[in-house]
């Protein structure tokens, strides 16, 4: 392959680095109104009254909107495909606030100073209510958070019990199987909520264009769903709204909800003026969404020969004040992790999401799969020790192989379970073992009396897009200038998705990156795409682009035959057509002849001319082929302080064909760093009244370069028959392994099991002391 | 932070007089943490024109002007005191931040989590205030709030050995505990900070060493003598455990 499989630079990389104005704030009109939220200081309260007269007198103030000003339209802010699984449990503004930071008023003025001054003068009278701040106390708590909730789909939403959603799935009889197990591990794990901490905070602006179309430019992940939600909440037809995604400075799932767009659109609708809202770092961290914190109980049974014969997973998850991504996270925690172990005879999953007066849970890289993978892999490592079997051998004995099926794998039907069509996980494990130096380091090596190093490993899988739900359309057009334009609704979040899509098109059309241009993520000009979530940009959007490019090429060959007036077989190398008898025609000659009317009579007897060629295609279907990874960690534990220092990490990835090795490598490193932060450093703290204290990087610690060890990244390519050029995905799966690999490395070093994240020095030391106490 | 008015005095006398005649006024040095404060103050008094950014070495002392940045201190004084001054600030955020943070701001604010305060306390540092004159850092740490202008930090040069140890989770996190052990001209000084309270001297640890005790025994004495408390970053019991380790390691590293 000439373009796919090459480490092509990001098409907009140099431009971004050189400061081209491509981000939302760069593009906002200079006279846009500054819009901010007045936010609730209480975790749970009813608003008795809001007095805004004094605030409106501040010079430069234009508009203050409160709950009485909005038509109560129940909706979800989850930017996901319709019909959403998410419960509709929000209004734009309401007389009830459910977490510290919940918006109370929309404040719009000519300048930021005017707005800040006005916000100090708005008087809100709250009836403060007792909040639920512990998710383990939420179920059937007499304090109830929601009354009006609408659901599109049966998700077991039960507001009277504070249940946002539940998801049960079973195959076989786990209890009967456990009786046949030779060893059973039963453990409870606590995995924490996590902040996205993307570089560019949340922001968007809106304006009426010259034709009166309400245009929104938003740093978002799914412009089409934003369009639909704004249409619904403001009662404007969708075709009178246009949403454009500009260059985005990172999201990781955190921008997959409509925190801002309906509100600025509301201000623009009422004033006729452009409006912009930018969240500062504190707001982005504390008033948007987090990874769902969970308590996960695992029961895993295994036989003497190393077979895992039964797994039960019970998940209690904290969806916070609203349930936007509640059900999907529960489903992913089941379907994107449990199929890893395919020799299983019985598997049982039950997950429930409860409402609390805390910052809402949302989409975050891994989306439930990361959390449940930690519990499953820790249990698998523990089971290996209990059975006296090497943990690597246990994995190789049980991991799903090509051609094998699992009842929970996406793409199954009543006719039969789905099968895995591509995996090199066994090779990934072997390679990772070699890279980390497993054989000379397992299980541990003493450094001095105080410090010891240990190694540990784990595996993970995920999905590639959502089978049976995701839709991506694409159009590829050949321009008279000899270049191609790809039209795709896909959203590049700084991930390099646009580069990947151009590579795929260039490969299919036998051309180079210079000749391919992409227009993306604009509801006014590009075809529909479900947006950037669930690791779908390469697999779903890429498949659509590939099919469209292939269709275009077929059309192009037909056109060349017409111009050459031949029925012979014709070949095309990207620049030139050639018939089997040796007649040739260059692409530029062809384009000249079909573009200009003057030449038409020479070449088109029956058809006067040919229109500009363009082809459309869609990806949609039941498949979601899992990518696989094996992660290996080496840590150093200071026995006396509990400090865990990362020494080395090796991650070997099967994402199918690697479309762009450089961009793939960066994705892996980024996911590993976030996973290491989750494992060791990142912890969200709340005060007693429910205010999130982790409101800056001095309080919330994402890893710095000095915290991260050498990262060795390698790929073991498989070839996925349903993927574009054999590709699957890797956006999310690369997050999963660090927490469980590090947990096992700590165990091998100092003999203690840690069952709550992050694994801080204080927890490690407490576990060491407890073990010494017992000995 | 928002200021209704802002002045740039050209003499210390003017600055001090303005500070006292305007209740609620705030001194502006490096302003690093002030940026995170959302209050409004009637007046900001900028110290930038007062020439407090000199570093001088006399026969007996290193004198740092209060407006000297941590980075200037690191680059000019890195070879002094066994590199302890550098080590004490290396966890603070990165060079761009250390270009802005001043030694005066760090010391005057008496933050519990400060690593530099612990090192300075072990080094028997003196502070020069415009109106109140000279006092020891130890005295200042135990004083009620002082409405004065810190002008200089005097660090005696007669220290033969010093070592600094700290424990933090992420590399630029606040310390969960820190300790410094120094053999100074006026004897052994062992300081423990981030308890989470600010640095304090352990007389018991110094006595122990002076009577021939081992570093481990001195560490136990310090853990018994000093107070530790819980906060949202760590528990007091864990801090006491860390004290046992960090004091011992500091003493061993300094060869005491």
Describe the protein in words.
With 775 residues, chain A is α+β, with helices and mostly antiparallel strands. Chain A folds into three domains: 22-129 and 202-278, Aldehyde Oxidoreductase, domain 3 (Alpha-Beta Complex); 293-466 and 622-774, Aldehyde Oxidoreductase, domain 4 (2-Layer Sandwich), CATH 3.30.365.10; 472-619, Aldehyde oxidase/xanthine dehydrogenase, molybdopterin binding domain (Aldehyde Oxidoreductase, domain 4, 2-Layer Sandwich), CATH 3.30.365.10. In chain A, 28% of the residues lie in helices and 24% in strands. Chain A has a seven-stranded mixed β-sheet with strand order 3-5-1-12-9-10-11, with helices on both faces. In chain A, a hairpin with a 4-residue loop joins strand 24 (576-579) and strand 25. In chain A, helix 6 crosses helix 7 (261-271) and helix 9 runs parallel beside helix 10 (369-387). Chain A is globular and about 95 Å long. Chain B has two domains: 3-46, no CATH class; 51-256, Uridine Diphospho-n-acetylenolpyruvylglucosamine Reductase, domain 3 (2-Layer Sandwich), CATH 3.30.465.10. Chain B has helices at residues 12-21, 70-77, 84-89, 95-98, 103-108, 115-122, 137-141, 203-210, 215-225, 236-254, and strands at residues 2-7, 26-28, 40-46, 55-57, 61-65, 126-129, 133-136, 150-156, 161-167, 177-184, 187-193, 200-201. In chain B, strands 4-5-8-6-7 form a five-stranded antiparallel β-sheet. A four-stranded antiparallel β-sheet of chain B has the order 9-10-11-12, with helices on both faces. A three-stranded parallel β-sheet of chain B has the order 1-3-2, covered by helices on one side. In chain B, helix 8 (203-210) packs antiparallel against helix 9 (215-225) and helix 9 (215-225) packs antiparallel against helix 10. Chain B starts with a strand and ends with a helix. In chain B, 46% of the residues are buried. Classes of the chains: A alpha+beta (775), B alpha+beta (256). Chains A and B meet through helix 20 of A and helix 10 of B.
